[in-house]
Structure formats: C-alpha cells, structure tokens
Q: What sequence folds into this?
C-alpha cells in the first residue's frame, strides 16, 4: 500500500507520479496474489470436512461438468473435423495422408484437448461460479452463513473447487475422444484416408504415458487454476451489481490467460528440450 | 428427492462417458495395447536393414493388408534384423519361396512389408522364416552406389 502522507508531496513532482502509479499497481498485484494464496490455503484446510458431505460436490459436478458437456462435445466435434480437413489438405501434397491419424490425435491429446476444454470451461463454468459466489456475497448470504456459524469457505467454496478439479480432466478426456472421432469422420469417412493406416499410425506414434497422461496432467492443472480463479474472484468481488459483473469478466479473462501461459510452461516441461 | 436422483444419474453418466473416452484413448489411440501375437499365423523374416519399419507397420500381399509387424529385434549372431509378423489367420497359404520386401508408401509415407508369392507347391507353416528378403530402400546407400558406379566408368 502506498503511504497516504506522501500523496500530496509527490503530486507536486510530476516526474515521480507515474513511478508511484507503477509501484501501486505492482503492490496491488502482489497483495492480490498473496490473498489468493491465503484463500486457497483456507479452502484446502476446509477440504476434509467436504468428504463426508460428498453430495454437495456431486451437485457441483452436475453444474460445472454435466451441464458443460454439450458445449464441450459440440466444440470437440468441430475442432476435430476442422483439424482433419486442414491437415489433409497439406498432407495430401506429400502423399502422406496416412499421417492424418497421428497429426489429429497428437494435436488433440497434447494441446487442443486440455487447452480448448479449459478455455470453454472457464467461459461456461468458471464465469457461473464467480457470478454465483459474488451474488451470494452481494445479497449477504455469505455473511448470514457466518452468523449461523457456518463457514462459507467450507460450505460453498470447497465443494465447488473440488468439483471443478474433478470435472475438468473428465471434460478434457471426452474432448479428446470426440475430437478424434470428428477427425476420423472427416478423414476416413469423407476424404477416403485408409482406415487401417489412420488408426495404426496413430497407435504407433501416440504414446500412453508421454502423450495421453501428460495431456491429462495438463487438464488437472488447468482445472485447479480455472476453478481457483473463479471462486477467488467471486469471493473477493465487490458486493454490488457492478462489482459482480467486473469479477465475472476478470474471472474469465484471468483464467484464460493463466491457461494459455501455463500451457506453455507445462509443454516446455513435458515435451521441451530444456 | 426425485430431482436429486436424476442429477446423480447424470453425474454417473458423465463419469461413465469420461471412462469410456479414456478407454478409447488407451486402446484405440495410444500404444498401450499389446497385440495378441498368439492369434493368427506368425512368420519371420530377416533383413539386412529395415529402414523405418516399426512395430504395427502393415504387412501387405498384392497391396492387401494381410497382417502387421509385431516385433523387431536385432540378431547378434547373424548381424541382421529379425522381424516377426502376425498374419491374419484367413491367409495361411504362402508358398515357401515367398519374397518379403520393405517398401515405402509414397515418398514420405509409412514403410511396410510386401509379400510376393512364389511358385512352390509347399507352403510356409506357422512360425516359419521367409528366406527371400529385400531390405528397405536407403536413399544414402543407393545414391552412394550410383556415384561410385559413375566414378568407375
């Protein structure tokens, strides 16, 4: 926090004003990051009390997982079909259209499956989580819970975080499988790639632990980050209509940026040469 | 209560769909599956050089997919590669003088084993070895030989 007493003095020195603004930004960012970390520690400390009340998590898996299924399946089918179509156009020039299977499968399992599913999850489920918790805060439902000695972090936030972390990898796996199905439909069904070559080359080049498991690990990390940002933004939102709307926007924007950045970091760690 | 039941059923279906998708990724997409080598008709062939042949590469006869390569190993005594092929049990009559050659599909395509039947009456049995083989086309070797022949002339 900038020292209030210096404000008047600094304003008279305009060259320092931008420096102070920069400092304030950085400090605000750091304190927000710190609060997010303290918040997740509180949520994790509340996790053990969630396990006996698993029906709360179940209800949240329904909301963030099952209800996201339609958009995930639709997107996966289209992404897979476009991949099949575009890759075929290039590969056919080299007489290598039998490599369509591995190209579609590797790009889906390693990258597109976890990343696109996480982006859709942030837009579909993360925004809803933020808005719901933010509105609970704005309508003082959270404070009234505290009045009744019910910890809202344990009762509201922890089941939602756990549900998000559990649902995200399942959605990513479904995304990959449906996407490969879409690529198969276009490649083998419409464009006439040899079916045996499509699957056998895919099996030859896609490795279980190297590709599939790494993709699932990615989606678990994305699930943690997206849900964490969503519940934190909701919990920290200003308890006004405008505050909730801003928190929802921030939740989706930050979660998407975090997913894209972490994807690079994870890819470099998993597949990179350094 | 009713609503809660349907919700739980939906979550159950969701998890089931994910498990099915994971099963597909494991069995159909990645190489977690081990081919059942016991089934079918097994043939062996030795090559000086197998080039880019891999396990799971197709085995074709007359262009038709008749089997797959299930194992490749290096024979230390004869300094050759030994390739094990599992042939579809429907095709069990290859003459003893069948030739196994490693070809490439297209310029950059996958490599496969092509079986060309000979004229002998006797057939190869299960587990037999194909005597007549032709190694993979190695571009460097062919170019090297070409330049050598040119220089000799």
A:
């Amino acid at each position: 926090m900038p020292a209030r007493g210096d404000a008047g003095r600094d304003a008279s020195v305009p060259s320092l004003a931008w420096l102070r603004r920069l400092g304030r930004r950085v400090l605000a960012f750091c304190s927000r990051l710190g609060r997010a970390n303290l918040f997740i520690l509180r949520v994790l400390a509340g996790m053990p009390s969630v396990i006996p009340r698993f029906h709360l998590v179940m209800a949240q898996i329904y909301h963030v997982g099952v209800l996201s299924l339609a958009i995930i399946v639709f997107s996966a089918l289209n992404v897979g079909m476009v991949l099949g179509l575009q890759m075929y156009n290039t590969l056919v020039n080299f007489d290598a259209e039998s490599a369509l299977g591995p190209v579609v499968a590797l790009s889906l399992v390693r990258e597109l499956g976890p990343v696109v599913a996480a982006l859709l999850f942030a837009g579909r489920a993360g925004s809803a989580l933020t808005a719901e918790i933010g509105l609970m805060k704005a309508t003082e439902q959270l404070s009234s819970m505290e009045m009744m000695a019910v910890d809202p972090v344990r009762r509201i936030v922890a089941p939602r975080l756990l549900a998000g972390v559990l649902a995200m990898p399942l959605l990513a796996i479904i995304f990959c499988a449906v996407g490969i199905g879409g690529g198969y439909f276009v490649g083998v069904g419409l464009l006439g790639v040899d079916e045996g070559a499509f699957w056998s080359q895919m099996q030859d080049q896609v490795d279980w632990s190297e590709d599939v498991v790494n993709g699932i690990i990615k989606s678990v990390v994305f699930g943690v980050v997206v849900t964490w940002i969503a519940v934190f933004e909701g919990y920290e939102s200003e308890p006004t209509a405008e505050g909730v709307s801003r928190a929802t926007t921030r939740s989706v924007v930050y979660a998407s940026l975090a997913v894209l950045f972490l994807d690079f970091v994870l890819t470099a760690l998993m597949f990179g040469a350094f | 209560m009713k609503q809660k039941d349907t919700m739980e059923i939906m979550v159950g279906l969701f998890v089931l769909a994910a498990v099915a998708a994971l099963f597909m990724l494991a069995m159909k997409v990645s190489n977690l599956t081990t081919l059942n080598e016991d089934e079918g008709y097994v043939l062996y062939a030795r090559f000086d050089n197998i080039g880019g042949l891999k396990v799971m590469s197709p085995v074709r006869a007359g262009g038709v997919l008749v089997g797959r390569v299930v194992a490749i190993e290096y024979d230390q005594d004869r300094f050759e590669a030994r390739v094990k092929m599992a042939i579809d049990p429907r095709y069990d009559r290859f003459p003893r003088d069948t030739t196994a050659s490693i070809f490439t599909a297209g310029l950059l395509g996958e490599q496969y084993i092509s079986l060309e039947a000979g004229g002998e009456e006797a057939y190869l049995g299960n587990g037999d070895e194909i005597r007549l083989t032709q190694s993979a086309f190695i571009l460097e070797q062919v170019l090297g030989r070409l330049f050598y022949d040119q220089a000799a002339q």
